[in-house]
Amino acid sequence: MQPDQDTSLAATVDAPPGWRSRFDSRNMLGWEAGLAVVVIAIGILGVSTSSEFLTGNNIFNLGLQSGEIAIMALPMTLIIISGEIDLSVASIMGMSSALLGYLWGKHWPMLVIFLVILLVGVLAGAINGLLITRLGLPSLAVTIGTLGLYRGVANIILGPNTISNFPASYANIGVTGVFNSNLSFSAAVFIVLAVLFGVVLHFTPVGRSIYAMGASPEAATFAGIRVKRIKTVLYIVSGVICSLAGVLLTFRLSTSVNTNGLGLELDVVAVVLLGGVSIFGGKGTIVGVVLGVLAFAGIQNALLLTSFNQEAASIPVGGLLLVSVFVPNIATLTRRIRGVIARRGKAAPSAVGAGHD
Amino acid sequence: MDPGHSADRRIGDQGRGTAPPGLPAAAEESANLGRGGQGPDPDHGTGADQGQDVDHGTGTDHRTGPDHGTGAANPPDRGHPPGTPLLSLRHAAKAFGAVQAIADGSIDLYGGEVHGLVGENGAGKSTLVKILAGVYQPDSGELVVGGAPTVLHSPAAAQDAGIAVIYQEPTLFPDLTAAENIFMGRQPLRRGRRIDARQMREQARELFEQLGVRIDPGRICRGLSIADQQIIEIAKALSLEAKIIVMDEPTAALSAAEVDRLFDVARTLRASGAAVLFISHRLEEVFEICQRVTVMRDGRQVLTRELAGLTADELVRAMVGRKLDERVAGDRAAPGELVLKVERLTREGVFVDVSFDVRAGEIVAMSGLVGSGRSEVARAIFGIDGYDAGSVTVHERPLRKSSPTSAMAAGVGFVPEDRRQQGLVMEMSVQQNMALASLGRLRRAGLISGKSERDFAADWALKLRIKFGRLTDPVSQLSGGNQQKVVLAKWLGRNPSLLIVDEPTRGIDIATKGEVHRLLSELAGNGVAILMISSELPEVLRVGDRILVMREGRLVSEYDRADASEEKIMSAATGQLQEQPQ
Amino acid sequence: MSATLAPPREPSGAPAEVGSRRLTERVFRVRETGIIAVLALFVLITAVIQPRFVSSSNIQFILVNTAVYALVALGETMVIITRNVDLSVQSVLALSAYLSAGLFGHVHGIPIPVVFGVGLGIGLAFGAANGLMVSLGRVPSLVVTLATLYIIQGVDILVVGGNEVVASSLPAGFVDIPNATIFDIPWLAIVVAVVIGAGAYYLRSFRSGRELYAIGSNPDGARLAGIPVARRVFTAFTLCGGIAGVGGVLWAAQYQTINTSAGGTNFSLIVIAAVVVGGVAIFGGSGSAVGAAIGALLLGTINVALDVLGISDFWDQAIAGFLLLLAITLDRGISVRLAAALRKRSARDAA
User: Fold this and answer.
1) Which of A144, B372, B464, B467 is close enough to B550 for a disulfide, judged by CB 3.0 to 4.6 Å?
2) CATH number of B338-574: 2.40.170.20, 3.40.50.300, 3.40.50.1000, 2.40.110.10?
3) CB proximity B5 to A under 8 Å
4) ipTM
């Protein structure tokens, strides 16, 4: 999506050669490293406040709680790097959950239900993608609209009903981990997908193209990159993944109700931004987002184990988000503050003296 | 989300202008010089240069003439009006890192005159303008405005000092009305500090009348022509009681009628006692509207004098100050098979019925004035834009419309006009930019091979002699010339059979310019077909084997290099030519 | 001082200039009247099918229900016009609702205006924090206000704990606010309408208001023009927060039972949707507070209309979402056509 914040004058006045690009790759690795430290710190904090923090059981719960958000964060990462945003993720999740419950209630075979959900996910993503790439509408506004539309469809499908009679073999994912280990099913899915998305983003031509179109849409087009096609595919992938997340959520809760996933979209965006992905596009890594997921989940989990109100976890999350945008900007910020102070201190605009930019 | 208007070249009535002195009287309307296009490299000038075709018919060819550059350290400023200058810049210097944009810039602007500022790309004109505009502060030197030494720390300070700058691409508020744009922040008030909208519209109307133009003050600025936007900026300057008005290449995107209107406005400003600084590549305009001229070369002021009695030739020599190179390389082998065939290509409102071929091993140069449709044809061939009728065939196979992928698959490469926005992803590294069009081939098992990418980039960096720190440095750190080489490397890395280059040497230093020309020649020698769009006539004649001329969306002339001359090309581009050879 | 040396060069003369102004004015009035028309049509159709819809009690219900949304939409409009966004209004409203209403239980006999003042103050404080970070820090407002949304939400959760404000702790005068009517029109709606009108007037007729549009229309141009961008953006965020704070108090008056779910999920996004439906461009520079208020009214009306028509109100969200998509598609279509028409006209005039 387009930057919603005006760019600095220095960036628009053509920088002469030698001007350090603010997207220096070194800057980026700095954030991941810092975040890794934060995650370790959270771990230490967790262990010190509760002996249960690193138990297998807790790890399982950790994976369980944030699994769906983590999974949805992966396509969101690619979408934000490409310069757009998708706020309909939680609603697609809700729609798939509602479909699952409704069709199961109608005694459809599970595999067919999965297929239908997959197709609906593709359709939902395609609608987003087409509105944004073909009609050229701003993704922020479009996906707020589809947020409502898809949640509405979920409402219509399921109405006030609640379906809970899912077969134990599926609903088990909320109780036991993969192969009876401590790794929850959704965490395992996340790990597999993270590797997949990471490889695609960082090592394939498509991934490089995504960075290019986020950093400079025009140059990407001129290099023969099919920007519209790739963005549409990204939204379709997001639709599919969010549908998958919806299925996982439903089985984990063993419940299909029209409010499943309500409000999660901002959590997904937060996790991605925490990971150091720039809202302006063109910058960010999957490693960062994985760390962001760990930080996000870790904070919530640590608070859960202490008797602190778990929901207040949003305070440190918000704080970290602020840090994520301010720290890279510290240099610019201090310069600006100095500039403001200097200007206030000056006598008159025509004071003699060499002024420097 | 307004689509950029860079592609919105208009087929206007180009090509009028009065001849500079020195030309035979009969050639009143023929001396229109090669117009540079708009370029976004402010530190290296905006727009290609070298179009100064002052062919006297006596055979004087400024390419081989002796060097008459003045070379004096402090050239005398002759013929200025009486009194003290409104603005005086003395010995300004400004460097950006290792690049010395201005070494010794001096200029005096007096009220009641229009003062021309000319110079090649990279001569320092744009930096000078930015210093006057308060965007940059000089490293050394002195600026005196209204008799008092001044340091302009910001554009607002420049505005307070009575300086207004009209840029080639004005920045108005597209969602607000013309009147609001003029008075933003200073709207007339009614009782209770409320804006008096009617008064504001009235005052705007008065300003427009003063300038002799008719623009509706209540009109939203979105969709306004560049010419109208400039007028609004000038009206704003008037309302701010600016005494010094700088016009930075204002005519690049204007039709002849709009240029006339602008000149009338300039005369009005002059009559009111303001000082107008007029920067342009088009010498005939300078001769038409200015009283005095300053020439900059290599970051220094080299000449300041009255235009009366000055010939265009002398002006050009002061600007260029050296012998230009002879034609690049020797004759190449005869062109080979047909590579590109464009047939009756038409895009409504942009270009009509364009047909031409390019063969392997030949360089076809496409010349013409700004707005004649050349870049648009190139973009249509490559598939960035669509077209309404006609066909494009490469190696006898038709290219799909609007599909850069199809063009690339057929072996076409495209080096676009705007290096920074279209040619490069400025945030990415040198290596990544070079690889951007070849990612498919640098793969191993579906993944980009870091080693292949590095080797590829290093290889091309060597071949093209690109100067950089490390391959992983952001490409924004390179100079313009080296950046252009990166763009070239990106496409050459695909081994194209057809290379389209749009303004290949715009905003590039002389040395690299030569290198690029040699490179193009070499490529042609190796059998690549090249379509080169250029506004620089010397470049066209140096490098092109065949020269096509477009005018107002049509292909009007074609010349073999042997038959071509700057005068002929210019005449065709401006519509003076009667016969239309095919 | 200056003389006209040349006669006006405009070949087509006055009619063209007036024509293009008429065109733009016509189109822009269309946007505002367009949404009013949609609303009117909606109400009409529903009323025809079910006359009960336009009963005075129903209309009161709609007006009271949408009042808070329309009010917060005013503040959000100011921010969006500057090409920013404020996601934190949701939690500011929630916290303000709890704290201000909770005052009644803690300070006996506290005058109602004081409570409003407290709510306003809380909102202004958080709004100012947002404004400071966005304007001085030059950081994207989406991220900043997402962060403050989280932080304030967390604070709200901590402060509320397991408690809630119950209706019985609130004085009758306070609880009656949503019910008071004059000539059958709720006072609440009138006051909110007046405030929105004032806000819209400010945006239209005061320099600093117009500068907000300039900032959103061309941020760099605004700087170059000497507009104090940081100050204006700061003010916009502060006011947005303050208005959300007042909205919180009104919410408390309306719903009376306040816990951590005050405002409902997605309140911020609903307000933004209303603003966009009302014609404010998501990238700033254009749109009006009145349009935004009508957008809120439209979305609120749909809810009630569905109920009255017997359609399950589960269709509500879907219709609202669809309307938003429709609105931005039409806006885009209109602006593209308008730009092309104006360009053609310019080309004709210049030739």
Assistant:
1) B372
2) 3.40.50.300
3) no
4) 0.85
Neighboring chain A residues of B92 at a CB cutoff of 8 Å:
none
- Given a contact cutoff of 8 angstroms between Cβ atoms, the answer to whether C115 and A35 are in contact is no
**B-C interface: how many C-beta pairs under 8 angstroms?**
149
**Domain positions in chain B:** 83-172+224-320, 338-574
B52-90 tens-digit pLDDT: 333 333 333 333 333 333 334 456 666 677 788 899 999
By C-alpha distance, the chain C residue nearest B256 is C351
For domain B83-172+224-320, give the CATH superfamily. P-loop containing nucleotide triphosphate hydrolases (3.40.50.300)
- The full set of domain ranges for chain A reads 63-293
* Sign of the alpha-carbon torsion through A187, A191, A196, A198: positive
Q: What pLDDT does C30 receive?
A: 63
Four-CA torsion B404, B409, B411, B417, nearest 10 degrees: 20
Distances (CA, A) of B354 to B12, B374, B403, B573: 18, 10, 19, 15
pTM here? 0.82
Taking Cα atoms as reference points, which of A289, A265, A266 lies closest to residue A277?
A: A289
Instruction: Classify C32-334 by CATH class.
Output: mainly alpha
List the alpha helices (DSSP H) in chain C: 14-49, 56-81, 89-106, 112-137, 141-160, 172-175, 187-205, 207-217, 219-224, 229-255, 267-277, 289-309, 315-350
Instruction: Please state, in angstroms and rounded to a whole number, the distance separating the CA atoms of residues C274 and B569.
Output: 59
Domain ranges of chain C: 32-334
Closest CA to A62 of A342, A301, A303, A356: A301
The parts of chain B modelled with pLDDT lower than 70 are 1-79, 98, 120-122, 253, 320-332, 370, 574-582
Task: Say which residues have a Cβ less than 8 Å from residue A264's Cβ, sequence separation at least 6.
Answer: A68, A69, A72, A89, A90, A93
Structure tokens at B454: 């590095």
Tokens of A331: 């240099």
Q: What is the pLDDT of residue B44?
A: 34
